[in-house]
Amino acid sequence: MPKAPKTNKSKKISKKIADRKKNPLFVKEAKNFRIGNDVQPKRDLSRYVRWPRYILLHRQKKILLQRIKVPAAIHQFSKTLDKNQSSKVYSLLKKYSPETKTEKKQRLIKAAEQKTQNQKPDSKKVNVLKFGLNHVTTLVETKKAKLVLIAYDVDPIELVVWLPQLCRRQEVPFAFVKNKARLGALVHQKTATCVALTEVRKEDQAEFDNLARDLRQHYNENHELLRTIGGGQVGIKSRHQQEALKKAFEIEELKKTSQ
């Protein structure tokens, strides 16, 4: 097949390209990304990172809890207090955090000095937060606890899975909070599975009553918590497959109806 003759238009375009190449202001310099040459471009390497084992386990556990059906008794732990409610609870409980080691040392020194001077030491009862799973359990069983906070990320969950039901039975207001490290900070520990409040001062009574009423409605009297099953969420690939199958069935139905 004979070639088409070159038109003036094509000559002009080729001339423009030649002029562009000759322009010294825009000289093309190809980058060399071999070792010791140009700096490599920034890439997202998160998929290639060798993450620590505890991070992998944490992520895998999160995905598993989304996929498999989680019983209501365990799923209720994910229904934690929101930011506003938790800030109110923590601000109240911070007033009742137990004394630190230095505070205790100072108190004992002061008591010893008073004893040497034949003065009566201050034996005033101090209302503080109670912690430790066994201790909190006995307080709930004897109905001495007025408020119980349970961490949502206790591992294994079997340690505290029965505690919400015990609180319901004993009519003690309780709540699930984030997280065990934050609860531990209230009582000067690394972590705490649960904390309990036994006594409240007169100045905090009104605030505590409002808080306890809200928590009762949200947890103790909320029967939906023990009925809703968690998990059952399908992954993105499976969802796409299901949608494709659904579309295929719809097309088949349309073909049948049109015939």
UniProtKB/TrEMBL annotation:
Residues 117-204 form the Ribosomal protein eL8/eL30/eS12/Gadd45 domain. Residues 1-15 have a biased composition (Basic residues). This is Ribosomal protein eL8/eL30/eS12/Gadd45 domain-containing protein. The keyword RNA-binding does not apply. One of its GO terms (cellular component) is ribosome. The keyword tRNA-binding does not apply. It comes from Paramecium octaurelia. Keywords: Ribonucleoprotein, Ribosomal protein. One of its GO terms (biological process) is ribosome biogenesis. GO terms for molecular function: RNA binding. PROSITE patterns: RIBOSOMAL_L7AE. Belongs to the eukaryotic ribosomal protein eL8 family. InterPro entries: eL8/uL1-like (IPR050257), Ribosomal_eL8-like_CS (IPR004037), Ribosomal_eL8/eL30/eS12/Gad45 (IPR004038).
